[in-house]
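User: Structure tokens for this complex, please. No commentary.
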Amino acid sequence: MTATPPRTSATPQSVGSAETAAAPPSPSGQALREIRKGVVAMWWGFFDWIAVVSWKKLLLVWLLALILGGILQHPVPVILLALASFIVKTVAGGKRRAEIAANEAVKRAEREQLERTVVEARMQALQAQIEPHFLFNTLASIDQLICTDPPRASKMQRTLIRYLRSAMPQIREGARPTLGQQVDLCSAYLEIMAVRMEARMEPVVRIPEGLKSAVFPSMMLQTLVENAIKHGLEPKAEGGRLEIVAEVGDGDLFVHVIDTGIGFTPKGEGGVGLTNVRERLRALYRDDAELIIAVPPGGGTRATIRVPYEVAGT
Amino acid sequence: MIVRRSPAPTAVVADDERLMRDQLVAQLKEAWPELVIAGEAANGREAVALVQGQEPDIVFLDIRMPEMDGIEAARALAGRVHVVFVTAYDQYAISAFDQGAVDYLLKPADPERVALTCERLRARIAKAPEPMDHLLAQLSERLGPAASAREYLRWVQASVGSNLRMIPTSDVLFFHAEDKYTRVQTPRFEALIRKPIKELIDELDPEEFWQIHRATVVRVDAIEQISRNLRGNQVLHLRGTDEKLEVSRSFNHLFRQM
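Assistant:
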């Protein structure tokens, strides 16, 4: 560090104030205003520098400035300057320092808020993806049930409404989504598919009661369940089993969606939903969460979401 | 060609959902009481077997079915039977073929629409089924534009320890040849693919992955910077790993501009 900051900010200041006093109505008034603005900015720069610089550094600067003043045979202004900066630092320094810190915190908070808004907007767009094939086929099934089994038709229609509510973008509530809620939302989809696929789909849900209050991000389990049925079980003539299992290990919550379907195909559009899940996990947890797609020895697919284990409301 | 006239017209109904089959059968009974339902199939393969065994006049094929979809089944049965496609969601604009050799029904169909289809069928089954090659080719083009365009790997199947995992290619940093296998490196772990790198390269998107060495393929987006080693070779530094990858001279041109 050198003595430059106080010197550069001090010298133009005196020059500037002298000039403003000397030439008021000249055509260069605009230029003068600019200079004045620059000087004011510089003064505040100097002020901020004094506020945040350590006493040790300030002492060093005074020493160097004094030596320089001695060499130039003008020690008095330097001493005055040192005195002024001492007063500024003791009287206003702390307040200014706090102000600067507060400003930075506000800026950081604004940026974080913005990032969060962007992420949330994207999430809502992702949530509003209801598969048209699913919707039209379900409506056609309800139409058939209206003729043959009206009470069941009514039940299925209500289930469809429950599903649509869960799949539509929701206004975020204060509470964080829990695993229990997410499983409930999936159950509407599972109920509909069980009516349509009959014996071709055997759902098994194994969530320990104690894990239902665990925090779990929204619309991820649903994506995995829909994928397992659409890409795993529906394309298989005899269908198969769909399991939703949750467990805790090493401080993490693991939620598995296991199907005995035709198995994961490495090509094609099947991965869009999974890519969204991965992106959202990254947005929410950075590196503390992941989506793992495994191929069980017996065939089919096992999709696992790992997130930090947290109980909602703590 | 099979020329056969049975006293009553017959049909096979194929759909993977029983409710949907029931619905169509009920509607057909209403619109065309003489039509005999010779059988029902729950997937494309069953439909083909049933038509080959029963030799009905008409087959109603749901487009999305397991094992073999409706279009494939129609292709297998071309010239043998009159085809009506059935779908809940006309994603591929089959309605565009409305007046052609193939009819279609949207589920749930209005009774009037079913009646119209039956009327058309009465006229059609007097003649031999028309060949549908051209039409089916057009249809399958709509069904899967990817069938013609090349599809690249988006996931690789690799073993991590004793487990088999699907790893998205967007997670891969690089592939490296190890004898008959290929090692895949991600920011979190490494895994082994049971496939030589030469075969793998053909399946990877050349926009996403570049070969930089006889034994190394790198994901372009993972490259952080390029430096030179003491021998003057280019060396790639990747995001998410400390491992450095040497670019062999024959691939130097890839990074000339950088």
